[in-house]
Amino acid sequence: MYIKMRKRDNGHIIILDLEGELDLYTSADLKKVFDSLSKKDNINLLVNMKNVSYIDSTGVGVIVRAIRDMKNNGRNLKVIQMQPQVKRVFELSNILFLIDYYKDENSSVAGI
């Protein structure tokens, strides 16, 4: 079980590319990154989940909390390119409607 994270800075948007599994064991690492980024002024966050092969309820909770924290600070967090099995977890949790989800990076950046 692992999660790799790579940050790309695109001006006022930070793109966070994730790879691996987002579960009980790896979610704490992502939470630390979200906490660090939420303290930065005038940024919006785009989370690329194209290479996330698995997510559990802990991972879902970390993402939902980060979305809430960003919105409370007047910023956006959008999710792109979820694998079908990952998207299904959000659907089964009945919280997909909470997420600004886009199929690709270009369409999500245009909406920020």
Describe the SSE topology.
Blueprint lengths: L2 E8 L2 E10 L4 H12 L5 E12 L1 H16 L4 E4 L3 H9 L7 E3 L2 H6 L2
Parallel strand pairs: 2-3, 3-4, 4-5
Antiparallel strand pairs: 1-2
Helix pairs in contact: 1-2
- What's the gyration radius in Å? 13 Å
Q: What is the overall silhouette?
A: globular
* Side-by-side strand order of the widest sheet: 1-2-3-4-5
- Number of E strands: 5
Order of helices and strands: EEHEHEHEH
Helix content range: 25-40%
Structural class: alpha/beta
Number of helices: 4
The N- to C-terminal Cα distance equals 32 Å
Round the mean pLDDT to the nearest integer and report it: 90
Largest sheet: 5 strands, mixed
What portion of the residues fall into strands of 2 or more residues?
25-35%
Q: Which residues sit in consecutive blocks of at least 5 with pLDDT less than 50?
A: none
Walk me through what this model shows.
This protein has 112 residues and is an alpha/beta fold. The chain is built from four helices and five strands. A five-stranded mixed beta sheet has the order 1-2-3-4-5.
Question: What features would you highlight for this structure?
Answer:
112 residues, alpha/beta, five-stranded mixed β-sheet, 4 helices, globular
